[in-house]
Specification:
alpha/beta; 8-stranded mixed beta sheet; 14 strands
């Protein structure tokens, strides 16, 4: 196949992230972000990697259609336009694929219909993903459009991990089960961790901790997810920037009955005004650390609650896996906050888990081990690369469809 470039699009509710990647050598040709779509203060930042030149546009971008057309124009300025014969496909991040989509999928009308049917369980994400797909298709109707689903990696969970203990018929009718999210990150990081250890993914058991403003944990046995912390929605699990994570469901009933809150108000509370933000008024871990250093007890308590939940999941997934070869930290907090990594594993030496203080303090440098020499369980920092994962899956599918071993 002569065409070797993949454009990766991540269409959020008010933003579009994009990368153009040449799969011959996995090199990035262009990267960019359109943010605050629909506002007067919209911004487009674009970088041509080859030239190192960065351009910015400021001003209103009305909708995703306008945003993607602006992206196409920026790419064309660098000779990388969507009309290029070297463009093999466009890969789209789609947050929720339910149980129907277990692998990357070439998009057609039936796929669009199914993604649309899943909007009730991903009301913030799937509509934006659909808009991005439809606009990109209109711009290049002849080009393969591929959906890569956040939930796909987690479809290997056994039913004992995926089902909630509620009435089965009701759960099946309304698709109530644990789907998990951040799947492209967990897939990439679990494989990269095995590579760091010099082993095959199918021979390694890994606990992956994706810690950003959104946060999730997964238990990966031999390259397959067997449990993950997020559930029907991204609200379940770890304490996050603004999401509560695990919660007694009766809290919802209590707030409705006693506080007189509506379902929409409770939804907003748990998703946007809880987590670290709800506990101390900040959802930036760097600011929380600064406040802790100044003796702020509210920030310290928020941090301790965050770490306590994280430690519980590490222990639980150790039990689920039985044997753990590595614990891998990734995403914004996981990759950059050494004090979070140290606190999360403190006291777990009996499980073979520990960090080497000097190694843990090193910033940057790609995938690296931070556990002591000869540790029973490796502890790693592995930068995630969801865009490369989407590009790789997209290109593999398009190449396979063309009958070409690229």
């Amino acid at each position: 196949m002569n065409a070797t470039r993949v454009l990766v699009l991540n269409s959020g509710s008010s933003s579009v992230k994009y990368q153009l990647i040449d799969m011959r050598d996995a090199s990035r040709l262009a990267v960019g972000l359109v943010e605050r779509i629909g506002e007067q203060t919209s911004r487009l930042g674009h970088t041509c990697v080859a030239s190192g030149k960065t351009r910015e546009q400021h001003g209103p971008v009305a909708d995703h259609d306008a945003a993607l057309k602006a992206v196409a124009e920026e790419l064309a300025k660098d000779g990388l336009g969507l009309d290029s014969p070297e463009l093999a496909a466009i890969g789209h991040r789609v947050v929720h694929g339910g149980m129907f989509f277990t692998e990357p999928t070439v998009i057609d009308e039936s796929v669009l219909t199914e993604i649309e049917r899943l909007i009730p369980v991903a009301p913030l994400h799937n509509p934006a993903n659909l808009t991005g797909i439809r606009t990109a298709t209109a711009l290049r109707p002849d080009l393969p459009q591929v959906a890569v689903f956040d939930t796909a990696f987690h479809t290997t969970m056994p039913e004992s991990a995926a089902r909630y203990a509620i009435e089965t018929k009701l759960a099946d009718r309304f698709r109530v089960r644990r789907y998990g999210f951040h799947g492209t990150s967990h897939a990439y990081v679990s494989r990269a961790t095995a590579k760091l250890l010099g082993r095959r993914p199918e021979d390694v058991n890994v606990i992956v901790l994706h810690l950003g403003n959104g946060a999730s944990a997964s238990a990966v046995r031999g390259g397959r997810c067997v449990d993950t912390s997020m559930g029907l929605t991204p609200l379940e699990g770890l304490v996050m920037g603004t999401r509560s994570g695990d919660l007694d469901p009766a809290v919802v009933f209590h707030l409705q009955r006693v506080a007189g809150m509506s379902m929409d108000e409770i939804d907003t509370l748990l998703n946007k005004r809880s987590g670290l933000y709800g506990l101390c008024g900040d959802n930036d871990m760097r600011e929380i650390r600064r406040r802790m250093d100044e003796g702020d007890e509210q920030a310290r308590l928020a941090f301790e609650i965050y770490v306590h939940r994280l430690k519980k999941y590490i222990g639980a997934y150790y039990a689920v896996l039985g044997r753990v070869d590595a614990v891998a930290f990734t995403a914004g907090v996981g990759e950059n906050a050494d004090f979070v990594r140290e606190a999360a594993l403190a006291g777990l030496e009996g499980l073979g888990l520990a960090v080497d203080t000097a190694r843990n303090a090193v910033r940057g440098g790609g995938a690296r081990l931070i556990s002591p020499e000869g540790a029973r369980v490796a502890v790693a920092v592995v930068p995630t690369d969801e865009e490369m994962e989407i590009a790789s899956q997209t290109y593999a599918l398009v190449g396979k469809d063309d009958g070409d071993d690229v």
